[in-house]
Amino acid sequence: MTEMVNVLRHPLVQVKMTRLRDNSTSPKEFRELVADLARLLFIEASRDLRLVPTHVRSPLADTEGQLLGERIGLFPILRAGLGMANAILDFVPSAEVWHLGLYRDHHSLEPVEYYNKLPPQLKLDRAIVVDPMLATGGSASAVVEILKRREVPRIQFIALIAAPEGVERMRRAFPDVPLYLAALDSHLNSSGYIVPGLGDAGDRQFGTGTPNVESSAEQFCKQDRSPSFRFGNI
Ligand code: PRP
Ligand code: URA
Fold it and tell me: Which end of the chain offers a freer environment for a tag, N or C, measured as fewer CB atoms within 10 Å?
């Protein structure tokens, strides 16, 4: 039976998550870790992939083999989901990648859709939504809603870190959508950031959170919702 909230406890996942959280990890290493973790989570999410029998000739003999029997769609939520989708696509080149652009309004924390070129119907066996962070669950819920309207038969969600609030929201709204996570963290802070989390997943992947270019998290801290706000402690 499919578990609906799957938190990978593999030792490699824990070691890589530690590096991912580390404030001093460079964007290059951060991207590599995102890719490794995305593949590890994809393996878990795809354990039940349908196969089609085939034959193959090795240098020594004919033998039986297997082909992928499913049409898989990857749905990265821009922009932080990009690194995860690219990593999985390298691993499963037959997958389709459908980008969805959403950002979280810093004040309301509600998702704002800015890119969606999905056709009215998607001919897929399964859709896998990828985003490093499941915080309030607003972005994830909006994307799953978009896919449900297109009657995708099977939807899974892969995130690197989730907050209990986001998990709860997804479980209530979409009890049929299993979650695959590398970590389930403590809580959201008053600005909707996951604690302990890793900060801003998009900024850390794409180097836009360096001291010269303030991350959106940092800029937001300066606008000050809570007087004790400091970067590294968002
Ligand atoms: C981040 C993250 C998720 C969203 C999670 O994206 O990648 O998409 O926030 O938060 P939620 O669960 O509360 O909706 P962000 O809005 O920062 O956009 P970005 O990837 O372009 O930086
Ligand atoms: N988005 C991020 O990038 N990080 C969080 O902690 C929450 C939302």
Answer: N
Inside any domain, residue 128: yes
Q: Is-above-0.70 flag for pTM?
A: yes
Distance 100 CA to ligand 2 centre (A): 17
Position with higher pLDDT, 1 vs 148: 148
65 alpha carbon – ligand 1 mean position (Å): 41
Q: Which two three-digit tokens encode residue 99?
A: 């980008």
| Distance from residue 80's CA to the centre of ligand 2 (Å) | 9
86-142 confidence digits (pLDDT tens): 999 999 999 999 999 999 998 999 999 999 999 999 999 999 999 999 999 999 999
The SS3 of residue 157 is: strand
Domain count of the chain? 1
pLDDT in tens, 206-233: 999 765 444 455 555 444 444 333 333 3
Residues with CB under 6 Å of ligand 1 are 77-80, 103-104, 109, 111, 131-140, 166, 192, 200-202
Tell me the CATH number at 181. 3.40.50.2020
* pLDDT, position 2: 81
Cβ partners under 8 Å of residue 191, min gap 6: 106, 217, 220, 221, 225, 226, 229, 234
Q: Residue 40's pLDDT is what?
A: 98
Contact residues for 148 (Cβ-Cβ < 8 A; gap 6+): 155, 174
Q: At what angle do helices 164-173 and 138-149 cross, to 10 degrees?
A: 20
Ligand 2 pocket, residue 174 CB under 6 Å: no
- Whether residue 56 is contained in a domain is answered as no
Q: Which ligand is nearest to the CA of 193?
A: 2
